[in-house]
Specification:
Structural class: alpha/beta
Number of helices: 6
Helix content: 25-40%
Radius of gyration: 16 Å
Strand order of the largest sheet: 1-2-3-4-5-6
Shape: globular
Strand content: 15-25%
Distance between the termini: 35 Å
Largest sheet: 6 strands, mixed
Order of helices and strands: HEHEHEHHEEEH
């Protein structure tokens, strides 16, 4: 079934609304594995991150991906991928950088009061205050937005921009 749909996508978003059922996780794993094989760009959030905890090497050969864990999901990813607790690092920026370094072509976006973003080479933080309470669904919107920007950044690096540098040159 995925062989019909994946070629029609620019980016695959996995996770929002997925649930934690074992069969659904197995199917999600198969879909992401095929997407990686096809060099499809991928965004993984929410319950999709549980698939990465189960299969830490799933994104190792991906063309480009973004993962957007909250702190609890990030701790599980650190333990599964690095074999260390996130608290063993000097601060969250160091932990995010360490995780991102092990994930080629993957940008880690740790969501929190201070967001920490790393591609394994550079790490940025965003401490601009938002709403006092986040409502359900904001992570889903973030995933969709990330998918759009991921596609645009990679697509634009191959398109002429009338003498201006392509957006893709502004990667972290």
């Amino acid at each position: 079934m995925t062989s019909h749909w994946l070629p029609r996508l620019h980016v695959l978003v996995v996770g929002p609304g997925l649930g934690l059922d074992t069969k659904v996780r197995d199917i999600s794993y198969s879909i992401v594995k095929e997407a990686v094989t096809r060099s499809l760009h991928i965004v993984v959030d929410a319950d999709g991150l549980a698939v990465l905890v189960d299969k830490p090497d799933l994104l190792d050969n991906c063309a480009a991906a973004v993962i957007t864990p909250n702190i609890a999901e990030f701790r599980r990813l650190c333990k599964g991928r690095l074999g260390k607790e996130a608290s063993e690092y000097a601060d969250l920026s160091d932990a995010v950088l360490a995780l991102a370094k092990t994930l080629p072509n993957v940008t880690v976006v740790l969501k929190g009061a201070v967001d920490v973003i790393s591609d394994g080479e550079k790490t940025l933080t965003c401490d601009v205050p938002g709403t006092l309470r986040r409502c359900g669904g904001q992570g889903d919107v973030l995933s969709g937005s990330m998918a759009t920007w991921l596609h645009w950044s990679h697509f634009s690096s191959t398109v002429s921009t009338s003498g201006l540098p392509p957006v893709g040159q502004y990667h972290m």
